[in-house]
Amino acid sequence: DGQDGSHEPPEIPESTVEKFVILVEEEIAKYETGEEKWPSCDDELSLLDAIDRVSKLTSAVAKFSSELKYNEAMNHSGSVLHHAMCFLEDEFHSLLQDSRTKQEAASSSSRTKQLPSLIYRFHEPERSVSPSSESSPCESSQAYIPENTERLHRIADAMISAGYVTECCQVFSIARRNAFEAGLPSLGFEKVGIEDVIKMAWENLESEIATWVKAFRHTITASFTAERELCEAVFASHRAISDRLFLGFANGAIVQLLTFAEAVTMTKRSAEKLFKVLDVYEAMRDVLPTVEALLPDDGEQDEPSVFADPKTEISSLRYRLGEAAVAIFCDLESSIKADNSKTPVPGGAVHPLTRYVMNYLKYACEYKSTLEQVFKEHKHAEKPSSFDEDRENSQTSGGGDGDRNSNSSGNDNYNPFAAQLIEVMDLLHSNLESKSKLYKDLALSNIFLMNNGRYIAKKVKGSPEIHQLLGETWYRKRSSDLRQYHKNYQRETWSKLLACLRDDGLQVRGSVAKPVLKERFKSFNAMFDEIHKAQSSWVVSDEQLQSELRVSVSAVVVPAYRSFLGRFSQYLDPGRQTEKYIKFGPEDLENLIDELFDGTPSSSIASRRRT
């Protein structure tokens, strides 16, 4: 510039400019054609400085392009600058690609060593857990040695300074996206289309969900942190560009992974899918704080973003997964109502429906805090009258951020999941009561109720989560029901037998009426034989309940029989008459009672004696 403020063309010797530009061009060509593709450290700085000078020279003379001599200088320097940028872009790409190649090799190696299991048994659902701290090819910045990261930084600075921001960012974005996709298989996850997920057999989809959860957690907690560090290191001088590139990477990675989760929500709902749906929900919930910490809010960004907010995407999908989980769990009521078989279970054993429901609830309640959370978010029904307000230890919610959600009942202690669980248990109880009426023998009906009631009680007692949700009041009520079933069984079976051992009607005018006594023994023998034959085939699989029943029967029958025998056996003539009417000793009764409830059909006692 002139001293008078006028803008005069600078005086630059043409030969000097020409020599300098040619020198730079030759230097670049040397590395393009030679064995050494990039200069050593000192030479690198010198070359980058020379390229920067060409950039500034081109920019300076561009202002005076109307002057012929400057136009020629600008064209030549511009051509060399473009050549230099292509050279830097190639090196930039090569450095980024070098890491990707290593990732693909590691990914391939990992796939040969670790194959995901394809089989998950319903009664042993596998909880998906957070990834370990083990290194993975997906951890982006760790794939580069510090020297290469620094070189990437210097090249990025040179390209951005020369006005090649778009080219630099494009190469970086594509390379990092490809590196991310190459690393996913190392975690067992392969990209699957939505249609393929929807059509996939559940056994296979279970496995895919487990590996997806692992990949998703790892991507958010490990890969994103590493990628952010890489962006900040390479574009250390350009924070806005660093933020934009990371946001683009994060958005692309999340969208790619959420496509699978989206497909899971579109599959047909069924009871066995609850646990994996909750695994996906928990993954979404658990990573959201990390995503919020890594990604700025819209108001915090230096410039508007063209990308959808990943936080919104995750929150939206998490909401739908929670909605699906609630619907699936509530469908358990429909399953119970639909089980209206008119065929009683042989021997009064535990009904398959009871086993299914209680095992299902046991595994569902391993997700207790999560289910409490989703029910508070989605189940807004009024508090049912069956919900026991006095239940102790059943009002506590472990639902994480779900605790912040209120519910329409207006009761802060109201637990919608506990209320739903009680509804399911009450419905199961009513269903079993109805099924017990299918038995013509009232004693067997009570054995059926005892078997199922004891099975339920043991499952509840064995699961702290279920016990806490149902409450002690509910448990005591069901225990009381069990005792009543026991009393009903005793009355229906053994009260009639004990009537044979009454003194009433045995004495006439002060002496024992032998015909009546003989008839009493005959009735007792026949009745006991019939009971033994029938109830030996009845099933009580719970050893403790089986023992309790046998002991209680012996405690009632054997002493009464021993006393009756002691008082009246003397009135029968010794020999054949005694053998004819007295078929059992007290010890015989004890042994025969110990054969009850084995589930093994027994022949009559009389026929066994003959053999």
Automatic annotation (TrEMBL):
Compositionally skewed regions (Basic and acidic residues) per UniProt: 379-388
Keyword Transcription found: no
Function: Component of the exocyst complex.
PANTHER family: EXOCYST COMPLEX COMPONENT EXO70C1, EXOCYST COMPLEX PROTEIN EXO70
Pfam family, one: Exo70_C
Example GO BP: protein transport
Domain of life: Eukaryota
The protein, known as: Exocyst subunit Exo70 family protein
One Gene Ontology term, aspect cellular component: exocyst
Gene3D superfamilies assigned: Exocyst complex component Exo70
Family the UniProt entry places it in: Belongs to the EXO70 family.
Annotated region described as Disordered, given as residue ranges: 379-412
Record-annotated Exocyst complex subunit Exo70 C-terminal domain positions: 211-595
